[in-house]
Amino acid sequence: MRTLSQAQKILRFLEAHPGQSFTARQIATFLITEYPAEYARKRRNPRFADDKAFLSQIIAEIGSQKDTLIRGNPALTWQDRPKPRRYCIPLPVETSTEQACSAEVAANAEQPGDAALQEQALYPLLISYLSSELRLYSLRIRESCSHNARGAGGNQWLHPDVAAMEPVDEKWNKYTRQCVKLNGSTSVRLWSFEVKKTLTLGNVRKCFFQAVSNSSWAHEGYLVATGIAEERVEQELRMLSSLHGIGVILLDPENPSESEILLPARRRIDADWQSIDRLVTENSDFQEYMELVSAYLQTERLRARDWNR
Fold first, then answer.
1. What is the pTM of this model?
2. Exposed e or buried b for every residue in 24-37, given b needs 16+ CB within 10 A?
């Protein structure tokens, strides 16, 4: 029996599920499960040191086969926004391919109770990404722990959703650390993150300037979202980021480790300690965050149980 190419396997899977859209990760997971013998041979490549590296390779291969897939089935369509890209072969009805697949994507995104798209549920996913991929030590900063002197909603423009510390000197030699301290230089960087769901033309500027307001104290500030609605929104983000220095992270709720820094933040040389002092006074979570930063600077020790929560 003739062995199917990977592109043929992908098309066979999509054709068996007409009208439904799938990410490259979902397709890759299916292929590895459905064709274990063939992928076991591929898995022996020493470049794939672990399951994550292997799955990432298959995902990358799917992303590079768009033209081949279209030649195999010209009806194939895909959507790049909101990310991640989704592939779809439409139902054999009069509805256009774009309408069929767009409706299915919207249905997936708007499922009531879908925790992956609830903002509160995104915080631990972001913290997981920051810990595993960026080696940051993070803490959730809750609005409910702020004084409510500014009235309802006022604290949304005061502090970020997540604050993090980067111990720049964590693996330095002790003499290097001592020299840095004696020189008065900082051995940590402070990061700030404002979390949203999907960025659209209607909310992108408000969300961005909320991140600007809430990140003014940090060395690096980011706006985090699970999706960008269209190309014009990304263009707006690029312009705003260039002007104000706030970065943008695309968070993948299905697999936080596959999240990406779309636009890197412009790093500030110094933190704004006056703003930090105000936040410490205003919010008990932020006070705990700075207590942990202070403890690290004094002891050079990190306790995992204190962070990433």
1. 0.65
2. bbbbbebbbeeeee
Range of the domain at 52: 6-109
Q: Which of 109, 144, 159 is the last residue of a domain?
A: 109
Query: Each residue's pLDDT tens digit in the chain (309 positions)?
Result: 567 888 899 999 998 888 888 888 888 888 888 888 888 877 777 766 667 778 878 887 888 788 888 888 988 887 766 667 788 988 875 544 445 454 444 444 444 434 334 788 899 999 999 998 899 999 999 887 877 545 555 567 788 999 999 987 666 676 666 676 666 667 789 999 999 988 999 999 999 999 999 999 999 999 999 988 888 899 999 999 999 999 999 998 877 887 889 999 999 988 999 999 999 999 999 999 999 999 988 887 888 889 998
Number of structural domains (the chain) is 2
Sign of CA dihedral 146, 152, 154, 159: positive
Q: Which residue has the tokens 């949203």?
A: 196
